[in-house]
Amino acid sequence: MEDWKRTVYISFLCTFCTSFGVSQLSPILPLYFHEMGVESAEELARWAGLATGVTYLVVCLSAPFWGRMADKHGRKITLIRSSFGMAICNFIIAFQHTPEGVVFMRLIQGLVSGFYTACITLIAAETPLDHTGWALGLLASAQLSGSLVGPLIGGYIADEIGIRNDFILVGCLMLIAFILSYLFIHENYVPNKDKVTLTFKQLKVALPEFDAIVALCITSFIYAICIMSLQPIIAVYIKGIVPPETENLGFIAGAVFSMMGLAQLVSSSPIGGLVDRIGARKVLITSLIYVGVLNIPQAYVTDVYQLAAVRFLQGLGLGGMLPALNTFLASKIDKALSGQVFAYNQSCQFFGYFIGAVCGSNLMALLGFTTLFWASGLLFIVAAIWVAFKLK
């Protein structure tokens, strides 16, 4: 097997392990804080939100630094550093006894995170250009499948072995990613350790298509806002459209939420191959419009089956969006600078997650769900128009 293909497949396994581990923690964080003595729903929500949001914010701020280090010292070392660092953080979280301790370790985890972005950078640099869409689509499938499976069984695992042991299990998954990365991932890129890292202004001069890269980073930011503005409150929306006596609301909300992830898992690899055949720009513009249009009908559904169906159809388009965006971005940059550029793109994306989580619930509280669905849908369409005019 060619080295680049082996790297893609090993990266697939590592990405699944890390994504599965990270995603299953969100449902159990409030339960963990409850074990520590936090009683009220408001306090549980505040601590859980803080523990989640602080990771996004720190990843946003630290990503450019790690991107420069990846260009200077190699991308494989970034995978090793992030997977080992996240493993240690989760082992330590398992032995915390205060919410403040958990939040602090989540902050440190955000500081050492970046495994998925490092994988994207590595795959974009090592894969032949005519196979980049397929490879990044496969990587997106691993990330999405881990994110889909994690929340569904994370609570069950915590019930069976205990929350603290669940954190230890997540740490072990990160260690598996560390071992696989160290032993089996091959990197042809030879870093220049004497190379001077570029400032943002110097990077602008060094990249002939800097304006196109900025446009793609803004598109990542818009994507993240739209996705995260709905994610924390979709269960509240479902509660309003089901009969008052409905039982197992949490399971229903999780199942409806997972429909989008399932659709992304189904579509990301095939659409990644389509990117290689017809071009990333066409796929990206089409996906943005398609997803934006299907966001709006969700404001008018009358039962959970309609909502699940629309979200599944929407997820088919989302599955091609990030592979197309990352492939397009990879085609615009020198491979020697790809770590730094992808890190800036990650910063924009995670800042969008942070803004979306904060602003989405506030917009809903002020103007209602209908306005929120329309605003998110129109933002996707605006992003498509932005890409069409800014990127050639």
UniProtKB/TrEMBL annotation:
Residues 7-392 form the Major facilitator superfamily (MFS) profile domain. It is a multi-pass membrane protein. PROSITE patterns: MFS (PS50850). InterPro entries: MFS (IPR011701), MFS_dom (IPR020846), MFS_sugar_transport-like (IPR005828), MFS_trans_sf (IPR036259), Tet-R_TetA/multi-R_MdtG-like (IPR001958). SUPFAM superfamilies: MFS general substrate transporter (SSF103473). It is found in: Cell membrane. Its main location: membrane. It comes from the Bacteria. The chain crosses the membrane at residues 7-33, 45-66, 78-97, 103-124, 136-155, 167-185, 212-238, 250-271, 283-301, 307-329, 350-367, 373-389. The keyword Coiled coil does not apply. Keywords: Cell membrane, Membrane, Transmembrane, Transmembrane helix, Transport. This is MFS transporter. It comes from Veillonella absiana.
